[in-house]
Design a protein that fits this description.
This protein is mostly beta strands. The protein is 13% helix and 38% strand. It starts with 9 loop residues before the first strand and ends in a 6-residue tail after the last strand.
Length: 266
């Protein structure tokens, strides 16, 4: 592991870019049962997060102001998965590991000692923005700044994690294991697939290898013990595919044996 024991990297949340933040709760709350966590304005965007069973978190960001990175993202790609955020014990160490593997660090900001961040660019980071963040401890949640959802929300689903597509196995392991410390589960000496987990984190990254297709997000995968009315394609206003998987819980409380749920794969 790239960090010392007790100072683990944590997969914190999946963020989606949307034109209107107010469009998110009808699905994230009304269908998935998300609980408002925190939200507010930031430089060039507004954000809100929802928590799910087991601790998984989804964030939605909308553009704020005349121009900015999110305006460009939406103009080029439309709504969809924008980035994944990892909390790291040392931003300097995480950036050094990335640079040693040939990654360029962009948007590094250490002006606020309570929340220092840097990014891996999607052109190098397998088709997705990766945010590295060193936090001194978050302030209390601000659920009053999260757009309200429908009343009588259903029970929260579990956000299993994000499924991505990549072309190269070695590059995939460099990014998610060498740089970000993800652990790849194995059944003895048998490789059970490109799935990366972080001890203490409720979510994981799964990667499908495809040497000819464009790298990037495939679906946000969720698990629930109730029927879900998932859209056949992208969730309205969010531009991301949500896929239900059937997942058992092992003795450590982590998801195991993940397979597409009957009728749930999209």
């Amino acid at each position: 592991m790239p960090e010392t024991p007790g100072e683990r990297i944590r997969f914190d949340h999946i963020a989606l870019g949307a034109t209107r933040l107010a469009d998110a709760p009808s699905f994230l709350v009304g269908v998935l049962g998300g609980v408002p966590d925190s939200g507010g304005p930031s430089a060039g965007f507004r954000w809100a997060t929802w928590r799910y069973a087991g601790g998984g978190s989804l964030e939605v960001i909308e553009p704020h102001g005349a121009d900015g990175f999110l305006h460009r993202f939406l103009a080029r790609r439309g709504p969809g998965v924008h980035h994944v955020t990892f909390l790291v014990p040392s931003l300097a160490a995480a950036c050094a590991r990335a640079e040693a593997e040939g990654y360029e660090i962009v948007g590094r900001d250490e002006s606020d000692s309570g929340w220092m961040t840097a990014f891996l660019h999607p052109k190098q980071a397998l088709g997705i923005v990766v945010q590295l963040a060193q936090s001194a401890g978050r302030e209390g949640g601000r659920p009053w700044e999260v757009p309200p959802g429908p009343p009588h929300a259903p029970p929260a689903v579990r956000v299993v994690g994000l499924r991505l597509r990549a072309r190269d196995r070695d590059r995939t392991r460099v990014q998610w294991a060498t740089i970000l410390g993800g652990e790849e589960p194995r059944d003895g000496a048998k490789d059970v697939g490109l799935v990366f987990r972080w001890p203490g984190s409720p979510m994981r990254i799964a990667v499908d290898l495809d040497p000819v297709s464009e790298a990037g997000p495939v679906a946000i995968e969720i698990a629930a013990d109730r029927p879900l009315a998932l859209p056949s394609a992208e969730a309205p206003g969010l531009g991301a595919v949500f896929r239900q998987v059937a997942a058992g819980i092992d003795r450590a409380g982590t998801l195991a044996g993940e397979v597409p749920a009957e009728g749930g794969a999209r």
